[in-house]
Amino acid sequence: MKVLVPVKRVIDYNVKVRVKPDQSGVDLANVKMSMNPFDEIAVEEAVRLKEKGAAEEIVVVSIGPSQAQETIRTALAMGADRGILIQSDVDVEPLAVAKLLKAVVGEESPGMVLMGKQAIDGDNNAVGQMLAALLDWPQATFASKVELSGDKASVTREVDGGLQTLAVALPAVVTTDLRLNEPRYASLPNIMKAKKKPIDMKSTGDYGVDVAPRLKVLKVTEPAKRQAGVKVADAAELVSKLKNEAGVI
Amino acid sequence: MALDPETRDQLIAAIRRFVAERLRPLEAQVAEDDAVPEAIVAEMRDMGLFGLSIDPAYGGLGLSMEEECLVAVELGRTSPAFRSVFGTNVGIGSQGLAMFGTEEQKARFLPRIASGELVTSFALTEPEAGSDSAAVQTRASRDGDAYVLNGSKRYITNADKAGLFTVMARTDPARPGAKGVSAFLVPSDSPGLSVGRPEQKMGQHGAHVCDVVFEDVRVPVENRIGAEGEGFKVAMQVLDRGRLHISAVCVGVAERLIEDCCRYALERRQFGKPIAEFQLVQGMIADSRTETMAARAMVMETARLRDADAPTTLEAAATKYFASEMVGRVADRAVQIFGGAGYIADYGIERLYRDVRLFRIYEGSSQIQQLIIARETLKDFA
Questions:
Q1: Cβ-based contacts under 8 A for chains A and B
Q2: What domains are there in chain A, each with its CATH number?
Q3: According to CATH, where is 2.40.110.10 located in chain B?
Q4: Which of B5, B48, B203, B338 has the fewest CB atoms lying closer than 10 Å?
Q5: Rounded mean pLDDT of B211-227?
Q6: In chain B, which residue's Cα lies nearest the Cα of A33?
Q7: What is the pLDDT of residue A247?
Q8: Half-sphere exposure of B310 toward its Cβ, with a 13 Å CA cutoff?
Q9: Starting at the edge strand that comes first in sequence, how are the strands of the sheet with A172-176 ordered?
Q10: pLDDT tens digit string along A191-201?
Q11: Span B120-228: which CATH code?
Q12: Would you call A191 and B49 a contact, using CB atoms and an 8 Å cutoff?
């Protein structure tokens, strides 16, 4: 089985995000960028499937600027086999991403699309679901456990009330949650070998997908500063304040 | 072999992340237990850290000196004890073999050194031979197709974990100085070889040094590195190279200390404002930053010279002298900026202050570096 793993280059999760002075977006100049952590979990899961013999080939696809090659290389160093970069210097919205991925699925015919449940920049949590709808494939989102048997996948999801296990027929779209696995550190020899793995360079035009934005960003602002807290002398005062001042109990 | 910038950056980023996420959280525990957890050693093996300097033909990464120094700076951002786990395999424990060994010797040992299966150790220092390293008394007497080693070595890093020692021993008792010394590869399971208890040290807990005693240890002739009498030359070349690696580690520790100082100074308030706003504190930060940048520039410039096969004896000695003394001053200022907290174990600053003290002593003390620098400089005008 071939596994397709879409990965996104996003602002590094350790970076303190700053809003541009004109409030048009987030300042990305000279900011460290890395692979979206949920996508890293997806790559790790795909590599584990390959190590178990359940997958034969892992293809990583990214949509973004030419620097997104670094993100693909990271995935190749972790154990993916080859990459596809669909170059775009403009921000591509979830629906357009899903349409591009649908076209890649058409060319690659993977048995599974394994991807992050959302990217930590836009937090849209939309592409996996849209892709499944466009492909008319089953979807299993927020996976915390993935098991394959024959042409079926059993996917455990963390839901409010506990754990829910779905059986989906392959091919399917599976999106990963935080606790699915702990991604490995790419070994130094594998980082060096990743350079020799192929990355296919494409552009959004190659797939005939209209990536013109349909959404308009009106304003981006920093979250309101948190007010300083107060110290209470004892539990009784805390309860009294919660009851009388905060009105939450 | 030089890496392309993109691959090099990915390599550095991977190590920086490993250090930040896996090693730094364990610093206090490693100091307390005086041991690096075996699971972490296994992760270091998986990452390929034991083979940084070893030729890819033998399973290593074959980094250039400049690349190795960039990696060493990153590894310097945490307790030096972590780097010691594989430090001897990258440097003094493997380089005699890598630089002067025969093809057969290299094929026999280097792949296992690169993978970390075999830990190596460098045994030069003796009770009576430290800075005066040509005064080696350990004897290697020829007996047929073997040498018989007798003597003892002191403060040998990683001796308790080593599977292979590079040992300097005197093959010609008629020649008292450097010329009578030869280098040998001695497996740790050789009958007659024993390793003492790890010493109680001032710092760098988790990295061990021990005595190594040789009592009639038979070493086959094919385990000699280079010709008879070439041991001192081997040792000096190995140390020359190691000085740059150590200097790069000093830069890393200094950068780490500056980071810790700045975070603390921005947070700690006195007289109604963060202490970072006081100019006397700023002066200490500025001095530390400036000296660290100078040391980094010396390390990188000398590493590039070495990669271009230029002689670097003077430059490596000057770099090691400056970088090790520099990190001592930076650590001292860090304790000062942290004030009372700098003297309390929980903050980890006093631990790094003790850890860096060793850099001015081992692989050639500051005073030995001064002698080399002066000797090489005077040569130009004699």
A1: 46
A2: 2-246 (3.40.50.620)
A3: 120-228
A4: B5
A5: 97
A6: B13
A7: 86
A8: 10
A9: A162-169, A152-159, A139-149, A172-176, A112-116, A2-7, A57-64, A82-87, A199-203
A10: 999 999 999 99
A11: 2.40.110.10
A12: no
Nearest to B47 among A69, A185, A192 (CB): A185
Look at A185 and B14 and tell me if their CB atoms are within 8 Å: yes
Q: Does any CB of chain B come closer than 8 Å to the CB of residue A228? A: no
Fold observed for domain B233-379: Butyryl-CoA Dehydrogenase, subunit A; domain 3 (1.20.140)
Q: Where do you find CATH 1.10.540.10 in chain B?
A: 5-115
Average pLDDT estimate for A108-124: 96
- CATH 3.30.360.10 for the B5-115 domain, yes or no: no
Neighbouring C-beta atoms of residue B59, cutoff 10 Å: 18
**Yes or no, beta carbons of A188 and B14 under 8 Å apart:** yes
Dist. CA B1–CA B189, nearest whole Å: 35
Single out the catalytic residue among B74, B230, B350, B363: B363
Which of A73, A74, A187 lies closest to B48 in CB terms?
A: A187
Mapping DSSP to helix (H, G, I), strand (E, B) and coil, where does residue A136 land?
Answer: coil
- Least CA distance to A69: which residue of chain B? B6
- Tokens at A161, concatenated: 């009330």
Catalytic residue list contains B350: no
Q: What is the pLDDT of residue B1?
A: 54
Distance of CA A215 to the CA centre of its chain: 20
Q: What percent of chain B has pLDDT over 90?
A: 93
Chain A hits for B17, CB-CB cut-off 8 Å, are 185
pLDDT of residue A246: 85
Per residue in B304-333, pLDDT (tens digit) is 999 999 999 999 999 999 999 999 999 999
Q: What is the mean pLDDT of residues B40-65?
A: 95
